[in-house]
Amino acid sequence: MKICCLVKEVPDAAVQKRIDSGTKRLDRSGEKNLSPFDTHGIEAAMQIREGGAAEVDEIVAVTMGPETAVRALHKSVALGADRSVHLTDGALQGSDVNATGYALAKVLESEQPDLVLLGQQSDDGECYTIGAVVADHLKMPSLTQVIEIKLEDGKLICERQAEYGYDTVEIDLPAVISVGDAINEPRYPSLKAIMGAKKKPLDTKATGDVGIEAGEVGEGGSKTQVLGINPPPAKESGEVFEDEDTAETVAKIVAWLDERKLI
Amino acid sequence: MAGSILVYALHDGAGKFNNNSLGAISEAAKLAGELGSQAGVVVVGDVADDACAALGAYGATKVHRAKAVEEGLAQPVVDVMAKVMNEDDYSYALFGGGLLGFEIGAGLTARLNAGVTMEVTAVKVAEGKLVAERPVLQDTAIVDVGYVGDKGIIIGRLNAFDLKENAGGQAEVVDIEVELSEWSTRARMRQRGEQRGADVNIEDADILVGGGRGLGEKDNFKLAEDLAEALGGAVAATRAVVDAGWYPYAAQIGQTGKTVAPKLYLAAGISGAIQHKVGMQNSEHILAVNKDPNAPIFEFCDLGVVGDLHKILPKLTEALKAKRAG
Fold it and tell me: Considering the entire predicted model, what is its pTM?
């Protein structure tokens, strides 16, 4: 069995994020890191490998992004992936969700995985959707926000929470599964794994290498267009203070509740 | 008709439609009115004629019903909606907030090679086309997104669209046959809507203490329960802790849980991610205790305390009890 993990480099949680008013895109400068959501996908792949219900021959980390995105791949390899693939091409810049999903599907097609895993959301841009977009381009069944994966007779048995409670769904392989953060507790990479990560194979691919039609990606291939950016409606901001003396803090909270007749 | 909007109406399997879907139908009808087009609805499963026709009350003119398609999984619905959009010339697909809407909308995007906008909080008409408003960067900016090409997908945020009953009468109900894609048949529902944990009522409480991952462990929910008792309220939870098995699903607020608007919402160890925020942001007063000063909840609470809830909550409970006794 071959598992591909889609990963993404996102601005570090501590970085103040902003939109570039010129390009109308998220300013992605500053400290970046592997999306924490995607570490759950890699961990899920590792647990399938270690679980013994299937022989996992290979775990491949796949990303699309600028040159710097190799760091997310190194981290993915340190967390357990055997090798990685980096789709990078100036032509991809400004791709919207549909164009990104199409491009990722093309790279995955060249890898022919039995299972594609990814985090349920990317933290910085598109929410929840990329897995389902990729799946339809690949003509594979998919499920998102999965919190448990079991292998049974070569099929996946997945659990997830939906609108009316928990659903249990049986899925044939190959499939695309996005996982929620409740699925596992990602391990910390060992120092040895971190040191060895840069020595693991990393393939760099351009759009032409995997048969991506240039007209279908980038700003020109995108089907959405940012028309403007506005501030949100003004809202009176609340008071935030630090707890230094807990007795004082509690007195303050009680007074606040009292004033509003909440107690 | 070009410019028409197709809405997916999620239901519980027994024909009771989801309020977010009804809100999306109301919104589609309003927008169709401005565009001079129509609002249609897709329903999958064997939902009664009356229940489908009654969607006319929200402004739908036509309901496309695929009786043979099972409700609950996204990809078969993608097959249905793609067919209806192409054959009946719909320009837009609109979804109320919810997980299935995200999945179906995303699949439809790939299938129709159309643009998609998600977490949309408002939709407007500009130059005869729809423009979606989407908050980004933890709601610190709102982006106006337009569509290139002849189709567009709009996925609303939970509770974004108000449910409005119009004077509209009955919708026309049309049965359709759809051949499913091969890959749509390769996922099968084994069990839908399993309830986990006790059945608790949080929707009627005036005061809610919400517990999140910051509580640290399951047993620490006792801190939230004690505080709720002292306040005369109930305890709610985030999805993360429900999925982790710390608290019952019935107490969950947000994207795939309940929507509440109590007089007081006290968030204990809750970061305030969008998925949670959408379920409680209409609370009259929001008080947050969290040790992370960068937690998004501090952006929209009325009173925020940056500190250790394990220290603060017990003392607050004690103080409230003493006040009540005194």
Answer: 0.93
